[in-house]
Amino acid sequence: MKKRYGFVSNSSSSCFVCLISGKKASGWDLSLSKAEMCRCVNGHTISNEYRFQFKELTHEDYEKLIKENYEGELTEYEVKSYNRMMEALKDKDYSEIDSYFDLKSGYDFPEDQCPICSFKHFLAEDVLNYLYNSKVSKQEIEAEISQKFKNYNDFKTFKNS
User: Fold this and answer.
1) What's the Cα-to-Cα distance from 67 to each of 1, 61, 79, 83, rounded to whole Å?
2) What is the pTM of this model?
3) Residue 6 is part of which domain span?
4) Rounded CA gap, 144 and 84, in Å?
């Protein structure tokens, strides 16, 4: 059976799974925001309750965001868009900028707001990958488990505590 994380879709029904709690939300035409979940730039889907507080952006933050997104040679459309964003900045119409850059939608929020990216919560598969790639060999880990536990039931009791 294939494991799927985050967003799973079949036709117009959707299902989201929080990688921290395992909470699931599913339904027809369900979006992340309706499911009360969000997804970071690295694809971690979590319930809104686990997302670190959204940092309110300053005028300078908005200016930096606009300039970073419009570097280099711009098409005619991009020039118009850039001018519209700079006008909104001048008028302090931050909701226009939020909307244009989709800042508060719950999709692709910054990794510093994600407990998984910030290493405040670890996914089991990430820990296993780290162990697998560390200097401790699989055989050493297996030997340690064999020495610590008499049988699988003892191991399960330890694993679930």
Assistant:
1) 46, 10, 12, 11
2) 0.58
3) 1-53+104-121
4) 62
